[in-house]
Amino acid sequence: MKQRKSTHQKSVYYYNQWKKRKIFVMLSLLLLTGSCFVLTLNSTTTSTTTSRILTLASLRSHFVVQKPKIAFLFIARNRLPLDMLWDAFFKGQESRLSIFVHSRPGFLFNKANTRSEYFLNRQVNDSTQVDWGEATMIEAERILLRHALVDPLNERFVFLSDSCIPLYNFSYTYDYIMSTSTSFVDSFADTKEGRYNPKMAPLVPVNNWRKGSQWVVLTRKHAEVVVNDTTVFPMFQQHCKRRSLPEFWRDHPIPADTSMEHNCIPDEHYVQTLLAREGLEGEITRRSLTHSSWDLSSSKDPERRGWHPVTYKFSDATPMLIQSIKDIDNIYYETEYRREWCSSKGKPSRCFLFARKFTRPAAFRLLDMSVLGSLRKATNKS
């Protein structure tokens, strides 16, 4: 009897142990299943959140409006002697500018001839040989515009020579140029005899004949007009020939009638005449943003006086010189008896943002002085 009881108790004991283990296993499976569910839920939530963040970031980058840029178009003989001055001007403003350089064919910008990285790989690869007084100068301008227009963010196009300097920091210059919807084109009626060639008529009528500085600032619309022009440019190529000068007659045959030659000076007439012919003069501010001081006394030949601007050398580069240029607030045009008062954002302002012609020693003297030394400070802050 005792043996049966003992056997029964053992059976009950083993059954209870088996039951406890079964319950433990079931609870463990339930707990494991629940943990997997929570992990899956968290993973899905994290994935969804990450996906939403990436989607929002993508949408934001897609709809963020990038600031329009100014394309700086340099026309140089070879290298840019004032490269480091412009380096200080451009520093920190990469998102708001583009740079293009036209030098003579065969010349290549590299680290051996420029210390500024801003000018490396910025040279156009289809440059032309430029001769003063010929249409090749305006062909160089058209080449630069053609390259700059490829970037849809370029909204203004500034022509500069290799002897130009900026008078203000980049932020001031950018705001000044972008504050108006007009181009800045020095343009006035040219009444001097011999400049206009009657053979240009009727495609280029004399009443559209204009003159002005070649250092213009164009809107994108006007830049496209220049690049797409197939009428006025060929007329300049065909009928604007450099007039031979007396000092060259000893080496070349004397022209039968020099009065029949037309030294049109294409770079000072082309853009102005083209915009006048296209009826776009109402869309320009009729002045240049680049200051030049014309030499009216150095030549003994009255016909040659005023042909070339003054070149500022080391001794000329003083704070007084720069301040005198900055203080100019109006320009008088004798042929039109017109005085152009300068303004920006609807308020009276200084006329010029750039100046020429400065030698390398003169420009770097200004950079080392407080006059242009502020370029470095201003660009670092902005």
Structure description:
- There is one protein chain.
- This protein has 382 residues and is α/β, with parallel strands linked by helices.
- It has one domain (69-250, 258-381).
- It has helices spanning 2-63, 83-90, 136-148, 170-178, 220-228, 232-239, 270-277, 319-326, 360-368, 370-381, and strands spanning 69-75, 97-102, 154-161, 165-166, 183-184, 188-189, 210-211, 217-219, 284-285, 290-291, 330-333, 338-341, 343-344, 347-348, 354-355.
- It has a four-stranded mixed beta sheet. A three-stranded mixed beta sheet has the order 4-15-10.
- The protein is elongated, with a radius of gyration of 36 Å.
- The model is unreliable at 245-252, 254-260, 299-305 and 377-382 (pLDDT under 50).
- The chain crosses the membrane at residues 23-41.
- It is a single-pass type II membrane protein.
- It is found in: Membrane.
Summarize the structure.
The protein is of the alpha/beta class. It has ten helices and 15 strands. It is elongated and about 125 Å long.
Strand pairing plus helix content: what structural class? alpha/beta
Beta-strand percentage range: 5-15%
- Cα-based radius of gyration, to the nearest Å: 36 Å
Helix content: 25-40%
Give the mean pLDDT: 81
Indicate the low-confidence ranges by residue numbers: 245-252, 254-260, 299-305, 377-382
SSE order in H/E notation?
HEHEHEEHEEEEHHHEEHEEEEEHH
What does the main sheet amount to?
4 strands, mixed
Number of E-type strands: 15
Distance between the termini: 104 Å
Strand order, largest beta sheet: 2-1-3-8
Q: Per the principal axes of the C-alpha atoms, what is the gross shape?
A: elongated
Give the count of structural domains.
Answer: 1
**Count of individual helical segments:** 10
